[in-house]
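User: what does the whole thing look like in 3D?
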Amino acid sequence: MSYIAVWLLLVLLTFFEVGLAWVRLEPRLMLAALLILSFAKAALIAWFFMHLKTHRPKPLVLLIPGLFLCIALLLALLPDGLRAWTLR
Amino acid sequence: MNPRGLKTLGMWLFILSDLLTFATLLVIYSALRLANPGWPTPFSLSPGILYATVMTIVLLASSLTMVWAVDAMGKDDRKRAVQWLLATILGGAAFIGLHLTEWRHLIQIDGITPSTSLFGSVFFGLTGLHMAHVAAGLIYLAILTIGVRRGKFSAEDVETGGLYWHFVDLVWMFVFPLVYLMAVKV
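Assistant: Here's the predicted 3D structure for the full assembly of 274 residues, as structure tokens:
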């Protein structure tokens, strides 16, 4: 995929997100939809613009331990995160 | 491993750690947003959201020119690389200019400051941290541009700078929907 095509797709997804705001979804549904779209856009940027696609595997493998630490941290903070849902 | 990949690897490690900072802020923001039914919604579709959409497209465009700069350096075309780097800087500067105008509007007309409400604190905290990253990126790109013009820096140096710039763009892909689109005036 050419860089321009990736960019156009990113712009298109942005407009789609704005369209979701236009129809005013219920907040939880809206958050879920926006997160899915955001991760799709982030993946497009990382895969094509940041050259993850053609990146030699070695440096990426070294990032895997960091990823596990991220996940561990997220899990460690999850109880507090869930508590925040009911915070007033 | 091949020492040529070390600079980009270092940047990837930095990006991963920086991603945690933003992820934490965004998760807190989203949780607070859902936990507060009376969340302020200061952004009307026009001009508020329209304005932020333009900012998003400007930042995305600067990512596109950055990719072309990296591409040009890969082909050893320094002149073209400098041109695309300058275009990227222009895009980043435009983003900051638009963002500051928006901030001023929020503070002066809507009366939202970091100390007026929970929304104000997280909004300025998040967007401020992101804007600081863009500003740092502009300095980074300026140094790269001057160096490339003088015949210094390798293609990998420009690619490393590109990684940082795309990362700043990537973070905005979360800030824009979660902060702006979740606070649209009903």
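In plain terms: Residues 57-85 of chain A form the longest helix (29 residues). Chain A has three helices and no strands.
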